Amino acid sequence: MLLDMVAAVASGSDWADHPVTQTNVIYVALEGQLGLRTRVQALEHDRGGVYQKGIRYVFDACNVASTEDVDSLAVTALKHQAKFIVIDTLSASLAGTAEENSNSAMAGMIANVQRLTRMTGAAVLLVHHSGNDPRRGARGAYALNANPDVSIEVGRSGNERYWRLDKGRDGSHTKGWFRIEPIEFQPAHETEPLQSIVIRHVQDSDDTQANDAMVFAGPKPKTQERTDVALQAIRQHLSQLDLNGNEQRNPGEATEETIRKIVARAFKEMHDSGAEGYGSNHRAENVREAIQSLVSAGQLLRE
C-alpha cells in the first residue's frame, strides 16, 4: 500500500480518490529489501513506470534518532528536491540504538524528525507496527501515539483490508478499503515471468465484520490515557529475561510500592516529553487513580 501511495505522490495522480500534490520522493527502505525490487517492477508494469523517475530509493542505514544521519538524509532530500520522505520502518531505523518503550527517547526521536521537516520542507512518514492489541495504537512508548501530527492506521478485518485516518489535525474521519491482487509479468530483461502483488482500491467493503470494526472514537479522556500509560509501563517492567535471554511475559509480581514508582516514573517521562496532564502537582493522585482503575478492570491483581 505504501509503494502505491508513493507512486501516486511521485506522479501527481489521485490516490484512493483523494487529490495529490506531485513531488519527488525519498524512500528509505530498511526492511524487505530483497522483495522490494520485484514489487517495484510489478507496480511499474501495472502503472506504466513513468513515476519512478521521481523516486529515489535509499538502502543505507539511517537512524532517525541520530543527528548526523538525519542531516545526511536532509542533504539527499534537498538535492533530489523531495518533499515526501518515507522511513520504512522505524524499528529497523533505530536498530537497538534507542529504546522504543521510552517516552523521553521517542519524544527526542520525533523532535529530530521534525527538525528534518524544518530543514527540507518535506512531510516525513514513519512506518511503524501496532502492538499486540491494535486498538491501543502504535507499539512502544505512548509518545509514538501522542506526538505525531498525523497517524494513518492500516489493518485487516475479516477478509478486507483498510486504512483510516486515526489522528489528524482537521479531525476528518477519512478511510478507505483495498484488496491485494496477485500479478504475473515478464520484464524484457528477464527470461522467466515474475510473480508479485499490487493493491486495488475498492469503494466499499463487502465484509460486515470489517464495516462493524470501522468505528471512529473521539480522543481518549485524560484519565483513560493515563491508565493506558500506566499499564504499558507495568507490563514493560514485568517483562523479564531468563538465563537464556528469552523474554518472560506476564504474569509477573512486584510490590505495590514498586508499581507506584514505575507509574510515577512513566508519568514524569510523559511530562518531560511535553504531554499535558502529567505535571507534578497532582501526580501522586493520578498514580493512585491509574492503579485503582487497573485493579477495578482486573488487569492488575492486588494480593
Your description of this structure?
By secondary structure, the chain is an alpha/beta fold. It folds into 2 domains: 2-213, P-loop containing nucleotide triphosphate hydrolases (Rossmann fold, 3-Layer(aba) Sandwich); 222-296, no CATH class. 40% of the residues lie in helices and 20% in strands. It contains 10 helices and 10 strands. It has helices at residues 2-11, 33-47, 67-80, 90-94, 103-120, 143-146, 208-213, 222-238, 256-272, 283-296; strands spanning 24-29, 55-58, 82-88, 123-126, 151-157, 160-167, 175-185, 194-202, 240-241, 247-248. Strands 2-1-3-4 form a 4-stranded parallel beta sheet, with helices on both faces. A 4-stranded antiparallel beta sheet has the order 5-6-7-8. A hairpin with an 8-residue loop joins strand 7 and strand 8 (194-202). The longest helix has 18 residues, at 103-120. The protein is elongated. The model is unreliable at 212-219 (pLDDT under 50).
Write the layout of secondary structure elements.
Blueprint: H1 2-11, E1 24-29, H2 33-47, E2 55-58, H3 67-80, E3 82-88, H4 90-94, H5 103-120, E4 123-126, H6 143-146, E5 151-157, E6 160-167, E7 175-185, E8 194-202, H7 208-213, H8 222-238, E9 240-241, E10 247-248, H9 256-272, H10 283-296
Parallel strand pairs: 1-2, 1-3, 3-4
Antiparallel strand pairs: 5-6, 6-7, 7-8, 9-10
- Distance between the amino and carboxyl termini: 48 Å
SSE ordering: HEHEHEHHEHEEEEHHEEHH
CATH class of the largest domain: Alpha Beta
* Low-pLDDT segments: 212-219
Task: Write the CATH homologous superfamily of the largest domain.
Answer: P-loop containing nucleotide triphosphate hydrolases
Please state how the strands of the largest beta sheet are arranged side by side: 2-1-3-4
Shape: elongated
Number of domains: 2
Structural Rg: 22 Å
The helix/strand class is: alpha/beta
**Proportion of residues in extended strands:** 15-25%
How many β-strand runs? Answer: 10
Number of discrete helical segments: 10
Provide mean pLDDT, rounded.
84
User: What is the CATH topology of the largest domain?
Assistant: Rossmann fold
InterPro entries: P-loop_NTPase
Organism: Comamonas squillarum
Pfam families: AAA_25 (PF13481)
Protein name: Helicase RepA family protein
